[in-house]
Amino acid sequence: MTIDPLTRHAEDAGFAHVVSDMVYDAAQERPRLMAALEPLCPDITGMMSGLRRRIPVAPNAATGVMGQFYRLPGHFRSLCCAVPDIEHPEQLWAGDVITFKGTEPLMPDFDDYLEWMMTAAFRGSDLPLGLHFPLMVNVPPGAMPLDECLREQRMAAAVHERHLTVYGELAHAPVPLFVHRCPAEATTDYVEALKRHLTPQAFERIEGRARAGCGVSVWYYPTAPIRVDDLRMLAAASPQLRVPAGEGEETVTRWCRLFVRLLQLGFMPYAPWNAGRGSCVDAGNACIDGGFADLLMLVPFESIPDDHWFRLSLLASARMLVHTVSMFTVSLAARPAERPDPSLDLLSHAFLYPRLLDAVRTETPPDLVPDPRVVSCFALDSLQDLVSSSRATQRPNAPYRANRPTG
Questions:
Q1: What is the pLDDT of residues 104-121, one digit of tens each?
Q2: Which residue(s) pair with 25 in the sheet?
């Protein structure tokens, strides 16, 4: 029997495995997505057949390369496998990738990993990594709760299916392949590890979600999912990974295109009520090939209460993408600073908004018209337009008055 590439790579790297328990299988539940994916990755059918039998598990959660598997800096819950055979480590960044999110609790060194998280710095947070997620985001650290796996899969699949309908191709974002339910004993061990290492308040915040079960989600992406935040770290240590300015221009063009396409499909990249939970357009999820990872926090238009919140959400989404462009610019200049010059966001705004407006015009299908609420945020042609916009954000500030008589 021919061994598929992913199984072979796992065996060559000396990985262990767990028996698969799939609660979501794209081939059965989203055949349209698979039909669109197969021409892009001819090996996908064989790899999925292997994954239905077993999930590979790395020996540890350390950053670095293990055969054709690698963990990028800052990818605390995901492990990548480069599908095409490679000869040199620098070639890992090219070609199809299968990403596993949530295998960490299955790894032999997870207790040590969680202990490390309790002192590891996390971006701009005042809390260490192990406490930031439970206390600030209500997410168990170092694992993927099963409910999160399933919600992220549903959101991503909905985006891809709408994108196929409107644009005739998959979106430039990870494609969900599987959701695996971790064995009950693995979940029990994970909860016990949390209880040992977390503070009581942090443990209480996330105990229920952790006990409900852990999962592993499996994704396809057309190249290495290097995010802007990753590039800032990699650029300092590996000069060959720096992106030339010309390629960076194409990256921004692709971000603008996908940003506008998400809006056209009825998805808002970010809403204020998701503060602290991230967005697909922030520097932690915008990939340097022009795609967006982690679509979980997308907000369907139908769940936005009114035009006031629509405008606030759209402006906040655009502002987040502006900051991502600023951080990307810092990396292109080979200055991986933690905090760039504050004026860079203003310059990035001036750079980005005309490109977003151009994308609104070019990415709206011929049989549709741009959403006027979107256009009004990026094209203010007169002072009257600005006055109208200011009125649109006003909210009534009157006390509640009962309509029913009392007594």
A1: 999 999 999 999 999 998
A2: 178
Would you say 145 and 139 are in contact if contact means Cβ atoms under 8 Å apart?
yes
Joined together, the tokens standing for residue 209 give 């979600």
Tokens of 207: 């105990």
Is this model's pTM higher than 0.85 or not? yes
pLDDT band of residue 373 (cuts 50, 70, 90) is confident
Is the separation of the CB atoms in 144 and 101 below 8 Å? yes
248 or 269, higher pLDDT: 269
Q: State the distance between the two ends of the chain, measured CA to CA, in whole angstroms.
A: 81
pLDDT of residue 85: 84
CA 161 vs CA 156, 157, 178, 243: distances in Å: 9, 6, 16, 31
- Largest Cα–Cα distance in the chain? 83
- pLDDT over 70 (residue 202): yes
For residues 224 and 327, is the Cβ–Cβ distance under 8 A?
Answer: no
Please return the burial class of 42, using the count of CB atoms within 10 Å of its CB with bins 0-12, 13-18 and 19+. exposed
3-state helix, strand, coil in the chain (%, to 5): 50, 15, 35
Handedness of CA 307, 308, 309, 314 (dihedral sign): positive
User: Residue 188: is its pLDDT beyond 90?
Assistant: yes
pLDDT of 89: 64
